[in-house]
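My convention is simple: the sequence line spells out the residues, with the fold written below as integer tokens. I include a record here:
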Amino acid sequence: MLFTTILIGVFLGFHDTGIGPDASLQQQWIFHPSHLHDGGMAEARGRLHMSGLSEAELVSGPHGVCLMLDGSTSGVVAGGVADLAEHLPKKDITISAWVSVHALQDWGAIAGLIQDNGSAEEGWLLGYRGDRFCFAVSGAETADEDGLLTYLTSPEPFDLDRWYHVAGVYDGKVMSLWIDGKQVASSEEQSGSIRYPDRGRMAIGAYLDDNEHNPHMGAVQHIRIHNRACGDDEIGDLLAAYPSMRNQPVPAVPLHILVGPYLQATVSEGITIMWETTRPTSGIVEYGRTVALGNRVVVQTPSLMHEVKVEGLLPETNYFYRVLGSDGSETVQSEILTFQTMTRPDTPVGFIVVGDTQNNPAVTHMMSAFAWSHRPHFIMHCGDLVGTGTVKREWVHEFFGSTGDLLGRFPIYPTLGNHERDAQLYYDYFSLPGEEYFYDYRWGDVHVFVLDTNKDVSPASDQYQWLESALQQSDAAWKVVQHHQPAYTSDSNDYGDTWKGDSTHGDQSIRKHLVPLYEHHGVDVVFNGHIHVYERTWPIRAGKVDEVSGVTYVTTGGGGGHLEDFAPTRTWFTAQKFRGHHFCIVTASDKVFEVRAFDQDGRIIDFFTMAKPLSGQAGQGDGGSH
């Protein structure tokens, strides 16, 4: 039986578990629909109101109903420190729960009330790090003034999709971690009352603090929080209350579309559509010229990641589509969305340029909404899509979670940034041509060449040799290069601390190897990210401003990452600069290339135009006129 709700309740006091009434029991989480009031609001004996981070589900499990979390920003917030004051252990604490983990992550939580930001670490947590369960506490009498947390970690890894009884105990002097009734770690590093964070929120099924939200993917059942340290026999009693639990099957993760659908690899007569599901399903794309759809492509092989090519389409034509899938027992489908096949070569194009969306989904979502309002043909992303490319949560929740409305209608062409760490997740989530870390694409008269400037770009490298040949062969009116690191930047400290000394004002490898190539083969514009500001250079050739045949470099790193700043003095190559979150919209015909940069409130912060000579007029070199 499946129940869906936004808000889940907590029950205080004892519950019928075979264990008698216990005055020390301050919280017991009972996941059952009977605890929900009309409209989904849950109340615990008139004292606590719960709110959800997102949709959580209640499913039938061993010994009752369990909370099932699918990793799609799910979790339950019990309230802040002030709200929970009378229900939080002050010094001694025992927290226990039955849990199963469906997918590993760097930081996961069963339950916790924590702040873990730099040297400021407070609260407590029962959870896991990678494939090891952990228990963390910060004591007020610890020598460290900030009260650093001590993390006890189990020496042995746990298995996925298996029930475990996990408990953490602290008595003001000693903390210990218990797995299935056995103590596996202990420490005397913490002492005194628990140091609670002022702004902390207690969460079930999510590692949550001011700047982190790592949702659990798996099941949780029978959470108990005592205001005393339980002994060996009592931990054993908690385990024995559900004698068959460890051997029971874990309920299946609810079937959802976790990521997408989103668009890739658009060509004149086809498109690739990708999405990810929480369970392996078949992959089906239904499409047509109207919302009636009428056509379908079916991939029967079950998969979590779906990549379906739709072919035989008309060029520069609007289509409607949706994706579906089935695992044999359940079916899932998306809403109906739209896409357009690639424009004809002589059609003007418009596209979004953005970079460094990392770790700020609120701003990225706002940018995506503005970008959607411009109805672009495609999205160019200049790298650092996420903060840490090896962390799946950041792809699912922070990047795709904040750009889904946009990427479901317009294809994205990404660049590897340093924060992607060349992670396999990048290659899993994108279907790119060629070697994938370097490739090219063309819309209308705009030919874009994508490089990974985290890797070797010397003349001996594969991507240098490819770029040299590709630029030479291109007959496009506009040649554009897309990579992450800047050739020129006025940033204050990435290439030398300008408040204390000199700076190279850009990546020396790019300037040494790639810039001469750009100038020789007539590149018009280079878009990059990396520096979290907006900056446009004058057209540059041979290390000087050349408004006739120079290359213009645009740093657009304002998609959401923490803002950086400029050097205290002006650089010779700077034409325009802006410190703030932003994105660019480019419109281009065969003769005119226009770039407008907007801040997060939709105000124009820069505008420039380049023009090619009309037929019969003299040009200059390979680059045309600017």
About this structure: The longest helix spans residues 392-407.
